[in-house]
Amino acid sequence: MLWFAWRASVSIDASGGDPQKEMLHCGFVGQIYVETMRSFVWATAQETYQRTDGNLSSASQGSQDKADSGSVLTALWNAWDLLVNVRGVGWNWSRGLIVPKPVFERRSRTGFVLWSAVHFAFHILAFQATLQVVRILSPEDFSSVTGGSVYDPSLPPVLQLFRCVTISYLVVLTIYFGMEWYYHLLAMLCVTVFQQYPSQWPPPLDSPWLSTSLKDFWGRRWHQMFRHTFLMVGGRPFNFLFGRLGGVIGVFLVSGIWHDLELRSVGRGNFVVVVGFFTMNGVGVVLRARLEEGQREICGGIWGWMWTFTWMTLWGVPIVDEWVKAGRIAAISEIIPAVLKQSLVLVSFVRRYI
Fold it and tell me: What pLDDT, in 10s, does the model give residues 71-85?
């Protein structure tokens, strides 16, 4: 299976040879390897996958009662949901998953879609605005698919540090807004067209800027889309070989390799930097766990927050540099359909008439 994934990644160019659409190819390659890992997880599962909410097994959720669990139609519906439901919401295999609670609970489909539309509009505007701010900081480099660097050797050390950290956090903020608008767009589509329940689309992130530890950030507040896959592919074998803390490193190691493969799909990437970032986050989790063994939490609140983001900034700036050198700032805007780019018209309308 891995060989087929590799063959597909090197023989199929989802960008069609257009450098402006390299993000499409990155996404294509990333998805290939994710599905390869998930296939391995399914093949080695130690228990039967089952729905934890019988109502969700209906093949036509909006128009009929719970379907017979043995029907072919229900089996096909469950197979489709298993394929696209990466967090495992409503399944028994997602034990331990922490699902963020929505600020306002929307049980009706109409209310949920309207609320998601508001979220979508806000986040896509914020996404484009943040992207433009990043481009302004270095118009020639960040507006080209050839990319640039967050480092500017001509600046004195203090300004150099300020520039690197500022650009890095703006890029992370852009990624955050991008995941939010894309998730809410999919949520509206699946709830309206496929008649899924709003409960199947809990928020994707949980205020990651409030994290007071690396464990809190990666295990709860950041998106958990690939949590189960990385746990089974990296965490389970490393836990068997090196114990529980070794399993933590295994999860982050596999995550780093996957992210590096994405960048390498367009001829970029740096194994040491990319894999090093994720591995060192795993090391940070392990170090804190070791220090807290048999003791209460040693560093929480504001001090925990400062330690968490200092650690991530230390290892994060180099990976952001690799990301922007790969031309992702310019390429990322190409994944937005042309009709969505016109959302900026809404801003002009508001400023003019309201």
Answer: 888 888 888 888 888
